[in-house]
Amino acid sequence: MAPTLVLRALAAALAGAVITPAVMAPAAAAQPAIQAGHQLVGYLHASFGNGAGYVPIADVPQAWTVIDLAFADSTGDGTVVFTRCQPAECAGVESDADFQAGIRAQQAKGKKVVISIGGANGEVQLTNAAQATNFVTSVSAIIDRWGLDGVDIDFENQSLKLDAGDSDFAHPTTPVVVNLISALQQLKDRYGAGFMLTMAPETFFVQLGYQFYGPGPQGAQDPRAGAYLPVIYAMRDSLTLLTVQNYNSGPIMGLDNQYHQMGTAEFPIAMTDMLLAGFPVAGNTAHVFPALRPDQVAIGLPAGQNAGNGWLGPDRVTQALDCLTKGANCGSYATHGTHADLAGLMTWSVNWDRFGSWQFQNTFTGYFGQ
User: Fold this and answer.
1) What is the residue range of the signal peptide feature (predicted)?
2) In a domain, 32, yes or no
């Protein structure tokens, strides 16, 4: 799901001392979590079929608290469409009526069901206000048609990138960023306090912003570097969950100024710690991306080895959770706090987890005791 991690001029490790909590901005004001307890978020293959097999929404087990319907995509003018997978591609797919009934049944159990927009093969760019309006109108139609609880933004590829000169995440000027923020604010205003907003960016669009932001002063960097940061920042008080994809990623520098690699518990530990501590963007201590609340942050991981690069076995998932929620079993990485109220886990995907005999789900329930 990740883009190719190429910077035309990859600078050496950021100079200076390791970041300490003293330079971190405070988190946003507290607000009640959408659901009590910890969250298990899973993508459900709803518009396509693959080797993982089709899972009717009514069959998603009780442990999953948030179900992301994957995916809705753009027609190119900001309009978003959601087309359910057809029997020729998805053996066992239910009828529209049964799909709707399955959504209602999951919601009756306290689950949240949202439409996820984008994905690995999707590209959504809102280049002007008219396209933002089309986005809001069409996303609202999907939410209303199926009675959904909100939206998940999974913009990848070239969907978000920063223009030259756009160097302050708190005051963005790039049209595709400004218009996305406007569209999300309009959706939030339309549906009110109960509207669920989640985002699942790749590390390239978030944590890479610690080193690089946009094209840089000489235009020598990939303009997508850190491009999600202004969207997350603008919507931070309305954001229910941020579930960064700790997979399909290149090496990313953490707050210890060391590069961290996928496949170890240290990778999600370091990447998640950045979100919970905050960090100066592109090394500029005058532009500190503020910490998110722990209940807004879930660790995104592949459900199995077939689901994506960066898979971690149950022991390493448990190690990451121990470190972040208990301050134990951290290995060589020193976190900037302990967060018992960390939201939980996200995975790609429910389908791949069923394919793997529910190993990811069982790791979550075994750890959090749900």
Assistant:
1) 1-24
2) no
